[in-house]
Specification:
Length: 239
């Protein structure tokens, strides 16, 4: 009986782990920073209509926290790669640049630069809604899974000793709580990332506004000075 109970709990653990991993992956695709996992969410279709993964037609690197740089192996694949990215992540801002080759015999390298969009108020609200929705979906699966395996465990424990029943039930609850806590931590970490990015956006907006106000004030001071000069010159008595 112990062996079958252990197998049942491990089965539940495997399913719950899958739910947690999927939640983490989906949060990575709610891109705030440049997450490498986001590049796994799309395929590239070549001129002949064949689909392939990005790593087979290009290499990629993180330029900084908010940008990917993608280096197509063949310049002819630039359009197809951009199309694949746009389909999976229409929010990415894409630009291209050309790097000169050191070898005369080689073509210049085209680089696709993907920039994460700024987290303004609208995007902040959309991202938070997405985080809540994905968490609620995952939580519902965890709870349903928990209820199902709790019922199955109860059936397997018929005739078992009270101590064995308690031990098995405690183990099942520990597995559930561990995954429930993990998913909540993923949610809290994503919300924190979004809030930090939104604060970064607000700070940048304030800096821009302060700079604009300073320029406007400087122009106003210059205008006043020029006005005084003009008045002074106009007020001079003729000789």
């Amino acid at each position: 009986m112990r062996k079958s109970i252990g197998a049942l709990i491990n089965e539940m653990k495997s399913k719950m782990s899958g739910y947690a991993v999927m939640l983490q992956y989906r949060y990575m695709n709610l891109c705030v920073k440049a997450e490498p996992a986001a590049l796994l969410s799309f395929t590239v279709t070549d001129d002949e209509g064949e689909e392939t993964n990005l790593e087979e037609v290009a290499s990629a690197s993180l330029a900084n926290d908010y940008q990917f740089e993608i280096y197509p192996h063949d310049p002819k694949m630039v359009f197809a790669i951009c199309k694949g990215i746009k389909t999976a992540h229409p929010e990415f801002k894409m630009d291209t640049r050309t790097e000169e080759s050191d070898e005369e015999s080689e073509e210049n390298q085209v680089v696709i630069v993907c920039t994460m969009p700024e987290v303004n108020k609208d995007r902040h609200d959309v991202l938070i809604d997405g985080v809540d929705t994905l968490y609620d979906q995952c939580k519902a699966k965890l709870d349903a899974n928990h209820a199902t395996y709790k019922t199955r465990l109860t059936a397997k424990l018929v005739g078992a000793s009270e101590s064995d029943i308690q031990e098995a039930e405690d183990e099942l609850e520990q597995v559930y709580k561990m995954h429930d806590d993990t998913c909540l931590q993923y949610k809290e970490a994503k919300v924190k990332e979004i809030e930090e990015a939104y604060q970064r956006y607000l700070n940048e907006q304030k800096q821009r506004q302060d700079a604009a106000d300073e320029r406007a004030a400087a122009r106003g001071d210059n205008a006043k000075t020029q006005y005084r000069v003009n008045q002074s010159e106009g007020g001079q008595s003729p000789e």
